[in-house]
Amino acid sequence: MGDSSSLDCSVLVLNRFYMAVRVIDVRRAMTLLYRGCAEVITIDEDQYSNYDFESWCELSELQALEKQSDEDFLRTPTRELKVPRIVRLVLYDRIPKSTVRFNRKTLFARDGYRCQYCGQTRPMSQLSLDHVVPRSQGGKTTWENVVCSCLNCNSKKGGRTPSQASMKLLTVPVRPQSNPGIGITLKDPRYESWKTFLTPNVAS
Ligand SMILES: [Zn+2]
Predict the structure, then answer these.
(1) Domain range spanning residue 81?
(2) pTM
(3) Cα–Cα nearest to 191, from 10, 7, 34, 17
């Protein structure tokens, strides 16, 4: 299928209840659509439309004649297919909260790659996970007790709590409402429609 730049696009996946669950690539989205596992969702002036594979092909054919600058198309040997921005899994009814896995990447994404003590933003290689209440004092490895920290602040704090180290947390760590990784692509105007489905703290 088609040119590589269109295949690099991201597609937001909703569950049956229109709740954002994850982000996938175009190839995966088209496979789900073709198999009937997913439908495309578009939003036009607060009006939702749902398309199955057939009707999405028809719409693509029409819109390929007058492409907008914020649209991407895939070229296949027989036709042009518009790249969907949002698909909905028609049978999937799990609630997204359970899909937020705790790991380095999702935790750094939650904190915006910002040290929660000094407020500086750093690349992932210069950040570490800090247990607010240290493990040596019974602190758990949970969303509520782990924050993103720069290496400086991390070593300064050592095996102490913030108050023992006279350091202050910028925000109270909480479990994210939906997948924090989703927020990263929102600066791109092509993904404007995603905002409808993401919680404010993630979309900001
Ligand atoms: Zn710091």
Answers:
(1) 4-97
(2) 0.58
(3) 10
